Amino acid sequence: MNETRRDRDDEGRARNARPRDGLGRPLPYGTPGVERQPEGVVRTPAETLREAQRLLDAGMPFHAHEVFEDAWKSGPEVERELWRGLAQLAVGLTHSARGNTAGGARLLRRGAGALAPFAGSGPYGIAVAALSDWARELAGRVESGPTVDAAAEAPRLLG
What we know:
single chain; about 50% helix; mainly alpha
């Protein structure tokens, strides 16, 4: 790969083809990495939650974020903030595990805030209140402590 030119997909859109680690950090070309999530996959809410939980449990919150991002982009408008909030929680965990404590804490709190309107309904069995509590508690810890282990800190999505 010519590293002076931008990577492009088959349609000519800019895409970073560098391999990535389990936290989504780019690795040098030619280095084995973690398989990336395909983009634009339309899943049912149950499939989204199942795949995201699998990735979170495996310590791959960056990849779980991509699954939630697909749901927020392809789902109904009324659910957009739900999926975006879940994506923000996953990205907050990603940053926290990468050592970006300020950014991680900020995203965890932002995700908890985005989920707040859904606390009463718990759509699709999502444990909204428990996730919000988890995010706020983790945000407080990462601001003043060491880098967290993404797999050990993985939240439970369903109540």
